[in-house]
Amino acid sequence: MDGVRAWQAQHRPSLRRFVHEKLLNRLSRPGRVAGVLSALANSGLPALARKLPAASVSAGARLLPDGLTTAPLPDFSAPSVPIAGHVALFTGCISRYLETPAHAAAIRVLSRFGYAVSVPNESQCCGAMHRHEGYPGTADRLRTASAELFDDARFDVVLGLASACTAELANASTLRGRVRDLTRFLANVTWPDDLEFEHSPLRVAVHTPCSQLNALKDGDAAFDLLSRLPGLVVTALPDNATCCGAAGAFVLRESTLANDLVKAKTAQLKPPLPQLLVTTNTGCALHLAARLREQGMAIPVCHAVQVLDRRMRETRP
What is the count of structural domains for the chain? Predict the structure, then answer.
């Protein structure tokens, strides 16, 4: 598929190709993401406006409804228990701005589990958007630049929160074997013996992104992590084997088909509705949240690590 898209990109009219790649370049620079999203949201493009968080969007303003901002995450966190290892967290470009709460939750959880966490504040883009839009040369350069940020012997592993980004970064030659999916990592590691959890019942539906299933080849990661938490009733979002329609920039290029795909999933949700919807990819989270809002369903969409964090935090002093 990427090869065909690269061929198509090379055969586009020069001006169209130039504008297309320039837009992707701007979106892949974290410092400009808020401004680009603001400009596009105010341009009247309905396909994108529906994907943005419900909160008002402006450059430098909050992008998420719970009040967390686009301020840089801490570069280092001291673990609250003896060192289990030193990990690095890959926050990406768009994910860095639109999933700040999930990254903050990951830092808290990893620190509680005894891991020292480093988060480079330099620009990070794995190159996946460019690769899937037909620009493999640019994708390779971006991936290499991001990999260089983590070429440090201190880091036992590099953890990615968004499945598509993690799959792309894992193919960097200098990081082979050192990149891990955060959800799978947390599902498998030994948890501290003194953890206490909220036990109240909670219905959680899990969406499995195509990148989690086909690129990382681990469709069970979120289920395995959530199964370790008491009180949860975990079910699969209907039709998990089919794409939700987000698929990187596809949701903008083919908005009608993308909306048809996500509607086919959410239309199958029946009472009792889930109280949370969990997914492990940024684009899928935005797309699903937009559709649920359109349907009037007050179901928050979050990452699996946020569920773990919340269930732990509620019992902390």
Answer: 1
